[in-house]
Structure formats: structure tokens, C-alpha cells
Design brief:
Blueprint (H helix, E strand, L loop, with lengths): L3 H6 L3 H4 L4 H6 L2 E7 L3 E6 L2 E6 L14 E5 L4 E5 L5 E5 L7 E6 L3 E7 L6 H12 L4 E7 L7 H9 L6 E4 L5 H4 L11 E6 L5 H9 L23 E4 L5 E4 L12 H7 L1 H7 L16 H7 L5 H43 L7
Helix pairs in contact: 4-8, 8-9
Length: 349
């Protein structure tokens, strides 16, 4: 029987199916809370532990929220269990490298403030990130005490995609902050993402009771200064878990077909009515998207953002496919060379 403390940590049947009863006892599971260069901190049924990484594993192979199997004798990480969800962003530059953000997250709390930081295009990217990874998105709008019209911000956020919920809060007010408690109940994990200075650290402090250094917003330009420099998993007062992440302003999406289709499901449905299946919604005749914009059914600005994201996704997919092919060819070349060398034929190369 699974320890109740592991269930509270987020353990589920998804992980139970990956481990035998003997392995459960001999290589106890734990959940990563912090990652360092050669070590990790984790929560286990026995409490908080620190483990070394084996030579075959690097810090980049792991992310906060991962479930791992441990070796009590060597005090090392043995392996990483298959993730239920994985949030990752495309690293800067071309290629297929991904930066892991967090794993096994139920809700992605997308934090933005009701001021100059509010950016619909950036919010859409975070929505796509969540929907591409089967993670529930929740838009959290902070600093409502700095505006007289927070409801307009909320309506604009919810208009980004069907069935997306947005909540306005004053993160310094415990009663207001309590609106987020349902998403961090026992066994549930939420991750905070958003730009620097929007109030993620204040939310973390309020929901966990852990004091986190924060820096206030600058009134002259509405820009905050971030305080979080590393990802961390912390227990929430409501019984669940909260992951804080460093603030970012650029979010590369990589291949995001599924996320795009989910976030823009209404546009995708209307596009089925276009005369041409490969319609780019530019000058093609009988374009259902342009017709909907003309009659006011669709917001033209939102449509343009969608088209831009479609082009970016198409280009990313091509780049990633080429890189995969290059690496595959390189692997075949290396194997062929090694085989010939064993036969003493390397002089022919």
C-alpha cells in the first residue's frame, strides 16, 4: 500500500504502474524539490533528503517536480520515472534543445499584472505551453490595487481562448489570495510562471507561508525586478505543492501543434469552412476566417497573432525535423565507422 505522505506529494497510479513492490521498498521514490550541479533535494516518505547525481546523469536531465527512485546505500538518484506532464521551452537558437521547466504539474498558474506587463501575445504563448502538455492553465492577474479597471483585464484574458479561466487578485491580501487555494489542495501541484516582477514570489509566500525576498514594482515604469533565480517545489498551506520559476520574457514553444489547436479551437473550427484546406487566410477566395473577421465574429488582431504563431510553429517543426535528421545521419555514420574500424578498414575512410 502506498504511503499516504507520497499521495499527498502527488503520487498517483501513473507512477504506481512503473514500479514493483520490491522496488518500492528497496529503491524508495522521492520527488525533486531543488536541483544543483551535482546534487538534488527531494521530498520522500521519510522527509526531506539530499542525493548525489550518478556520473551518468546531469542536472539538465532532471527538473523540479520529477519523481525519482533512490538508492539509500549510495545516497544517489537511480532513475527518473516517466512523467505525467512535462513543461518545457525551446532553448534560444536553432536546434532541438529543450529547457525543462517543471514536471508532473496539474495547473499552470500564468501570472501577469494589471499594468504595463499585461501582454495578450505572451499570455497566449503560456496557454499554448500548458495545453501542449495536458496541463490546466489558470491566468492569475495581480496588482489589482494599482488599477480601477481590473475587470477589463480579466475579460481580455478570458477572451484569449474558450474555457480559459482568469482570476484577479491582490496577492498581499490573504482573503484575495485564498482564491487560488483550490488548485493547491493535497496531492495537487501548481507551477507559477510569468514575467519578472508580477508578484509570483508574493503569491508563493502567501500560499506556502515561506518568506521569499521580493522587490516592489517601480511606479515610474511599472516594471518589477525579479527575485527568483532557480526553480523550487514547496509545500502549500492548503496541502498541495507549488513550483516557483524564474521570470522570463521570451518563451520559445518548439513544436506546438496540439497546444495551438486547443488554445485557438474556435479559429480552427471556423477554418474548416475555408474553400482550401491549406488556406493561409491571406488573399485566398472564400476564406472563412477573413469572412468572420469582416462581419465582426472574430477579432482581427487575435487572428493575426494566431497566424504568426502558426508560421512560427511551422518553421520550428521544419528546423527540428532537419536537426533530428542530421543527428540520425551522424549516428549512423559513427556506427558505420566504428564497425569498419573494428574490422581494420578505417584506412579506407
Amino acid at each position: 500500500m502506498v504511503d499516504s505522505s507520497l499521495i499527498a506529494l502527488g503520487w498517483s497510479d501513473h507512477f504506481d504502474d512503473q514500479i514493483t513492490s520490491d522496488a518500492f521498498v528497496n529503491t524508495p521514490p522521492a520527488r525533486i524539490s531543488d536541483i544543483y550541479r551535482k546534487q538534488i533535494s527531494a521530498y520522500s516518505a521519510a522527509g526531506e533528503i539530499t542525493l548525489d547525481l550518478p556520473p551518468s546523469m546531469s542536472a539538465g536531465d532532471l527538473t523540479v517536480g520529477d519523481w525519482i527512485l533512490t538508492d539509500p546505500e549510495t545516497n544517489r538518484v537511480l532513475s527518473v520515472l516517466d512523467r505525467h506532464t512535462l513543461l518545457q521551452r525551446q532553448s534560444a537558437g536553432a536546434g532541438i534543445t529543450r529547457q525543462l521547466i517543471s514536471a508532473n504539474v496539474d495547473t499552470l498558474m500564468i501570472v501577469s499584472s494589471c499594468n504595463d506587463d499585461f501582454n495578450l501575445a505572451r499570455l497566449e504563448r503560456y496557454l499554448i505551453l500548458a495545453q501542449s502538455n495536458d496541463t490546466q492553465p489558470l491566468i492569475v492577474l495581480t496588482k489589482i490595487d494599482l488599477t480601477d479597471d481590473s475587470e477589463t483585464y480579466r475579460k481580455q484574458a478570458e477572451a484569449l481562448s474558450p474555457d480559459v479561466q482568469a482570476i484577479t487578485i491582490n496577492s498581499k491580501d490573504p482573503a484575495s489570495l485564498d482564491q487560488l487555494s483550490p488548485w493547491v489542495q493535497a496531492g495537487k501541484t501548481a507551477a507559477l510562471v510569468g514575467s519578472s516582477g508580477v508578484g509570483k514570489s508574493t503569491i508563493l509566500s502567501g500560499l506556502t507561508g515561506i518568506k521569499v525576498a521580493t522587490q516592489g514594482i517601480r511606479e515610474d515604469d511599472s516594471k518589477g525586478r525579479h527575485t527568483t533565480t532557480a526553480r523550487s517545489l514547496r509545500p502549500a498551506l492548503a496541502g498541495g505543492w507549488l513550483i516557483d520559476t524564474p521570470g522570463v520574457r521570451s518563451l520559445g514553444l518548439g513544436e506546438s501543434d496540439e497546444g495551438l489547436e486547443r488554445v485557438f479551437s474556435d479559429l480552427t473550427e471556423i477554418a474548416h469552412g475555408c474553400k482550401f484546406s491549406d488556406c493561409k487566410h491571406e488573399t485566398e477566395p472564400k476564406c472563412a476566417i477573413r469572412a468572420a473577421v469582416d462581419v465582426g465574429t472574430l477579432d482581427g488582431v487575435r487572428v493575426e497573432r494566431w497566424k504568426k504563431l502558426l508560421k512560427e510553429n511551422e518553421q520550428n517543426s521544419k528546423t527540428i525535423a532537419k536537426e533530428r535528421e542530421r543527428l540520425s545521419n551522424l549516428g549512423r555514420h559513427s556506427k558505420s565507422y566504428a564497425k569498419k574500424k573494428r574490422r581494420g578498414e578505417d584506412q579506407e575512410w
